[in-house]
């Protein structure tokens, strides 16, 4: 690996075929939010390895570099979720705009949840933190209204 960052982030940045495949398997009757959460829960890597890598990132590299890498992950997730929405909701008016906004928003919620988990030294239940973040979006940021 050329840098310690390469070791700590490995393929997590752009290797998101697992997410695309998991979304494709979700039932059409399932809500978008539930489909995304269930698909993310199918992450094929050992969460303990991810926890150890996140802890190492916190200790070894700057917050700015971590944020940069997570933005790549967010962009990759947004692309996959956007494509899923375009396919599943193809009859929706202005689907390109709707899918891009929704994909970017849901990806941001997921990545912010992971960032929050990482900043807190990977304590807490990541699935619950992600569900809380997704529910904020699902409810239109209800706690702020």
Protein described:
The chain has 145 residues and is mainly alpha-helical. The chain has one domain: Tetracycline Repressor, domain 2. 70% of the residues lie in helices and 0% in strands. The chain is built from seven helices and no strands. It has helices spanning 4-9, 17-24, 32-40, 47-60, 63-88, 95-119, 126-138. Helix 2 (17-24) runs parallel beside helix 5 (63-88) and helix 6 packs antiparallel against helix 7 (126-138). The longest helix is centred in the middle third of the chain and has 26 residues, at 63-88. The N and C termini lie far apart (47 Å). Residues 1-8 have low confidence and may be disordered.
SSE topology:
Layout: H1 4-9, H2 17-24, H3 32-40, H4 47-60, H5 63-88, H6 95-119, H7 126-138
Helix pairs in contact: 2-3, 2-5, 5-6, 6-7
- Shape designation: globular
How many helices does DSSP assign? 7
Structural class: mainly alpha
The biggest beta sheet reads: none
Rg value: 16 Å
CATH-defined topology: Tetracycline Repressor, domain 2
User: Order of SSEs, N→C?
Assistant: HHHHHHH
Fraction of residues in β-strands: under 5%
CATH class: Mainly Alpha
Tally of extended strands? 0
Helix content: 55-70%
Distance between the termini: 47 Å
What would you say the CATH architecture is? Orthogonal Bundle
CATH superfamily: Tetracycline Repressor, domain 2
**Domains (count):** 1
Low-pLDDT stretches? 1-8
Global mean pLDDT? 85
């Amino acid at each position: 690996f050329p840098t310690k960052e390469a070791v700590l982030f490995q393929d997590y940045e752009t290797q998101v075929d697992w997410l695309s495949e998991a979304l494709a398997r979700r039932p059409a009757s399932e809500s978008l939010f539930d489909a995304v959460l269930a698909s993310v829960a199918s992450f094929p890597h050992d969460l303990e390895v991810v926890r150890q890598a996140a802890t190492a990132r916190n200790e070894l590299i700057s917050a700015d570099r971590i944020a940069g890498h997570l933005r790549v992950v967010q962009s990759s997730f947004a692309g996959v979720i956007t494509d899923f929405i375009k396919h599943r909701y193809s009859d929706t008016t202005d689907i390109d705009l709707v899918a891009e906004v929704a994909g970017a928003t849901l990806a941001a919620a997921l990545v912010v949840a992971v960032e929050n988990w990482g900043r807190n030294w990977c304590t807490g239940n990541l699935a619950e933190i992600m569900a809380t973040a997704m529910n904020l979006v699902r409810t239109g940021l209800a706690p702020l209204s």
